[in-house]
Amino acid sequence: MPDPLDATPVRPHRWVWPVVGAAAWLVLSLVVLPYLVQGIYERRFLGFLHKAISPERHELAHYLDPCRQFALLGFGFAMTAWGLARLLAWPGFYPRFVAGGRPESLGAMRMLTAGILLVSALWEELPTSADLPRGMVKARGLIAILYALPGFDWLVTSATALAVFQTSVVVLLLLACLGWRTRWTVPAAALGYLILGAMVRQYSWFYHTGLIPCLMLLVLSFTPCGDRWSLDHVLRSLRGRAPVPLRRPEVYAWGRYLCWCTLALPYVAAGLSKLRVGGLDWFSAESFRYWLYRDTLNPMEFDFEVSLWLASVGAPDALFTFLAICGAGGEVAYGLVLFHRYARVVFPAAMFTMHIGILLLQNVLFFDLILLQFIFVPWDRVLKALGLRLPGLGGVPVRAEASPAPEALPAGAGMALDPARSLRRLTWAVACVFIFCWVFWIDYYPVTRMSMYSDARRGGDVTYPQVYSVNASGERREARLGEAIGVMKGSRYRKMLRQARKPEKQELVQEFFEVCALRANQGLPPDERVVEYQVERWRWNYREFPEGPEHAERTALYTYPVTGAAAGD
Asked: Is the pTM of this model over 0.85?
C-alpha cells in the first residue's frame, strides 16, 4: 500500500486502496455486522452470545442503531484522515503554512512548556493523597494501566514514596526547561508529569488543566528542541566545542507546526463539542448563565462574583448570548492559526482574553492555556528587536525555504534519514488521534474529546453545595477542604460533595471527612478542633429570581460528625 504522506505527485492508481478499503468497511459494518447481531439476537447462530446482549431488556433496534452509527463515524474518520494525509503531502502546503521555523522557536517552546508544567508540579501536594480513602479511586485510562504494574499500589499509599516521585518529576521538568540532555530529560519529564497527573485525577475527575502542555512536551521530545536556547548548547560553547550543527530548515518548521497542532486541535474539538452536544441551545442566554452561575456558586479556588454582579444589575440576555458566541466561535475558529499568519496574532490574543474572562466569571483558572498562547511569539526576533541577546543561546539564522523534492534525498532514505518527513507524519498522527477521540467520543486520560461545558441547560435551576465545619466551641465556618488535604486544592473535593446525595456513598463520604478532620485538627487546641462537617444543597432558579441567589432555597442538609482519632481523642 502506498505511503499516504509521500509527497510524490498523485497518480490515479493511488486512489485504488482507499476506495477499496472504504467499500470493504461499509460492507463489513453495514451488512455483515448487523447480520451477525440480528442472528445472535434471534438465536440463529452463536447462541452462547445470546445472553450477553440481554434481548429481554432491549429491542433489536437498540443494537442495530449503534452498528450503523459506528459504520458512518468510522467511514467519516477514515476519509478525514486520508484527506488530511493528502493535504499535508501537497507540495504547496509546506511553503504556504509551515515554512519559517527556527531552532530558537523550538527552544522557546520547550522552555515555556516545561516551565508551565514545572509550576504545576510544584503547586501539587501529591503526598497528601496517601491518606485518602481508597474507595475514592476511579481507575480509568492511564491510571488503570498503572495499577496493573507491580508495586504501584504501594506507591500511591506511601507519602514518602509519593514525595520522592514528585521531587523527581520536578527535577526532570527543571532540567528539560533548562535544556540539559534534552534527548532524555524532555520525554522523561513529559512521562513523569503524565503519571503525576493520573495520580491526582484518580481521586476527582478528568479535568484538563495541565494536559495540553504535557502533550506538547511529549511531542517536543520528537523534535530537536535542544539545538539552541539550551544548557547543552551553552556548555558546548564554554568547553570550546563546536555548536550542534543546524539541521535542515524543514525540521524546525515541522516541529513548530506540530506544536501548533497540539494546541489548536483541542480548541477546535472543544468548540465543536458544544455544537455536537448542546446544539444551538448552548448559545442561549439561559444555558450560558447556568455555567457561569454554577461555577461561581460552587466551592472554587477563587471567589470572584462578577457573574452574580451581572445578575444583580440586570445584565441583558443579549450580553450572555454574545459571550457564548464569542467563546465557542473563537474555539472553533482557533484552527485558523494553522493556516494564516494573521490568525496567529488574533486568535491567541482572543483566547488569552477569553481565559481571563473565564477566571473572573467562573473562578476557573486555565493558567497553562493562558501562557501557551505565547508559543506563537517569535521570541528570537522580539529579543533582537529589543536589542537583547541571551549569552551563549544564539545561533545562525535559519533561512526558510520550501521542502526539497523527494529525489533530493538519498536513494532509499527512510524516516531516520529524513526527520522532516518523520515530523510531518507525526503531525498527521497527532491530528488523527485528536480527531478520532472527538469522532468516537473517547475521554480516557490522557486522550480526550474536550467536551467540558458542552451541555445545553434549560429550566433556570442551578444547584450547588456548600460545606461548613463546626468546631468544639460551636463556631460554624465555611470549610476549605483543600487547605487540609493539599491534593484536593482547586475544589477537587466537589466530587465528594456530590456523593453526599447518594445513600450508598455515605460511608465513603464519612471516611473522607474523617481524613479532612484528622489533618485539619493537627496542632489546634481542643476548643478549635473540628467536630462536625455539614454539607448543604441549595437550589436557585435564576429564571424566576434573576436578581441573585438571595432567593435560593436549601434542599438538603447532610451532617458528618468527627469521631475517634480525627476528633483528637
From this structure: yes
